Structures are given as C-alpha cells and as structure tokens.
Automatic annotation (TrEMBL):
It comes from Rotaria sordida. Residues 1-20 form the signal peptide. Pathway: Protein modification; protein glycosylation. It is a single-pass membrane protein. This is Chitobiosyldiphosphodolichol beta-mannosyltransferase.
Amino acid sequence: MLTFLCALLVVGIIILVSKLRRPNISTQRCVHIVVLGDLGRSPRMCNHAIEFEKHKFNVKLIGYAESKLGQKISNNQNIEISDLKSFPKLDDLPAVLVYGLKILWQFGTLIIRLCQLPKPDFICVQNPPSIPAILATLLIAKLRGARLIIDWHNYGYSMLALKHGFQHWIVHLCQRYEFFLGQLADINICVSNTFAKDLGVHMIKASVLYDKPTNLFHIPTIEEKHQIFMKMNTQYSYQSFQGRSNNSTRFTKEDETNNIVCLQDRPAILVSSTSWSEDENFALLFDALKKYGSSEMNNLPSIVCIVTGKGPLKEQFIEQVERERDQYRHIEFCFPWLDADDYPLLLGCADIGVSLHQSSSGFDLPMKVVDMFAVGVPACSVEYDCIDELVKRDQNGIIFQDANDLCDRLQSLLHGFPNRCLKLNNLKSNLSTNQSKENWSKEWETVMKPLLHLESN
C-alpha cells in the first residue's frame, strides 16, 4: 500500500512538473517581474516591465498594487498587474511569530501566483526583500524551466542589520542565504560599480545597470510649472501653493499679456523624495532647516519643503514636525504622495533637491538623485562610500556631512535668491549644459539585451 501511494505521489509530481513546464500556446515570450512590495514604489521594476514589453514580451508584473501606477503601465495591454494578497494584521500575537507567519504567507502566495501564470522565459525579482522572494522565484524558475534574474538594489541583510545590528545571528543567516542563492541565479544585475565589485567578492558575477531617467523626466517649461502648482493647490489641496488670485500661484502668475512668469518674491522650493525607511536620517534635514530659519535672513528666501513618498516612518516624522512647528521659522512643509505622472513635473519645479539616503550597505545609489539631475535640479546628498559615482562635487550638486554642514550649504546656495544666487545658478547651468543623452531605455538595451540574448528591433 505504501509503495502504491509513493508511486502515486511520484506520478502526481511528474504530471504537475510537466504541466508547469508546458510551453505557452502563444509564441510571444513571457517574463514575470516580481516585487514583494508596493509596485507603485518600485519605479525601477516598473521600468523593467516597460522595456520588456517594448521587446515583445508578455509581461506579468507581480506584487502589491497599493499605489497608483503610471499610465505607461496601467494603459498597456501587454503588461498585466498580478496583485498579491496582503498579509492580514495579527496585532495580538508576538512579533517573532507574526514575522514567521508573514514569511510563510508571502512564500505561499507568491509560489501559487507564479504557478498560476503562463510559463515564463524569465523571472526578474527585486532584492531586497530577499526573504522569501529569492527562494520562491528560484524554485519556480527551476521547476518551470525559466531563467532567474536578480536585480540587486541593496542587501536585504544590511537592511535587517539597521534594526538588529550586524552581529545578530539572524543577520548572518540572511547574509549567507542571499549570497548562496545569488550564486544560483542565471543573471545578476546591480545599481553601482562598487556593488558589482562586492558581489564579485562573494562569487556572484553581476552586471551594472545604472538607474537612468525615463522620458517622463525633463526640465519643465514655465507653463508646465504653473500647471502643476495650480494642481497642487486645487487637486492635492496644499495651501502652500495658493496664489493671490484664481490664475496665480505662490510661485507663478499670468501677466497682462497672458504669459506665465515667476514671482520675484517667491519662496525657494526644496524637494526630497523618500521611502521613509531606516537608511534615511530625516533628522539631518529637519535640524538643518531649524538652524536655517533661526539665522539672519538677509538675502535668504523662506523655504517650502516638499517631502514626497510613502513609508513606515512617515507619520512619525509628520507628527514630530507638527509638535516642533514653532522651531521652523521661515519654513513650510508639505508631505504629498503624488501620482506617478505628476511627480516628475513637481520635482522639476524645485530649486534644490536633498537626498538623505545613506545606504545600509554603502553600495547602492539613490534613484531620486538621478531623477533630480534629469529635471535640472542640483542635489545635496549626504556623504557615504559610493555616492561620488553619481554626485560630482560643485558640478551637479554638493555632498554634506551633517545637519550643520547642510544648513551652511543651503545658505550659501540660496543667498541672493532668486536672481543673484550665483552658486546655485552655476550648478543649474552645468546640469542644463551637460544634459545627458543617456536614458533608461538606452542603458537597458546596452546592458540587458546581451544578457538576455535579445535581437535588435
């Protein structure tokens, strides 16, 4: 009887595997792009989806559809959003148990979804989170005869170490898990040259696919700026953008000849986009702005500070700003979450961008800075190991050490705003003159097409 049951089990497994590996009826190639997180907050993976679709792939974008996606994704018939079911809240159970149950839930829901979808030629997974995403996608790739691509944005174990410290046993376990499974992937790509070298130390050969701006990012015209300012006031309901009349904003107006002009007494706009995670120290920015507002304001403008994004620490910092409102003289805040198509326009309206990304691993580069440069906005970035691969001191931005240093740099850049701030205008001029003709599509074709053995269109 036992022999019969074992034989039946083997036959069942063979039938299941043969079904999962059965070629698709359609001759169109298929790729599964996996994000074990909010798809709307994973622009690089969405950009992958668009490029695969351009190369005649049937794209399945798998993740949590929590935020609104851009029109290039949502209106594309060849890109299917496959929404994963979120883990239910279990507030009454111990945190360790909830964490274990969440991993099992994510592993199970992801495995089932990858088996339900048509057989892929490639599975491309974002890392982090590494647990259980890499293991689940590796198993399905082997089972279904697909090639696995790991896109290394950072190390999962280094993110975990922010909470537990690098000496914790679970961090060491996660590190070994990542490096072992990374060696089993068919293709590894990462975001910086420094990252690729470190992966090489751990026997993982990775190609560098730098983040580059998409065609959505450009230096906006004065008319485009006026339109997004109006939208921020009317649609998003932020009073910091409200003008003195119906056809004006805090920053722009329509003159007597119906032309849009910038107001000379406008405040400066400082923008920082964030995922509100532990590897971004927002206390640096807030402390710098406190000092900025408390200093002598001769030839210095007031600042409207726009912090975009979603994340676990957002509400905590908003509450802190509200409690300390009196300490922010000459500073106004707004914390929007923008539609994917509005974000590039508002970013291009900024006078200065600030990146507080310090990288838990020291190897990844902030995509937000790439976006800032694409819309002609100089970036102030906090210093860490490989940031000089992206930010060139006093050419396209500045690198600062701490809150006092950031405050001094902001005062130096904004002195004489808006027309006589020579340092800031020089940085903007450099960005405008040296506008790179490189974009995401060209970078993707240069790096990915040889790895995927794709023919030229």
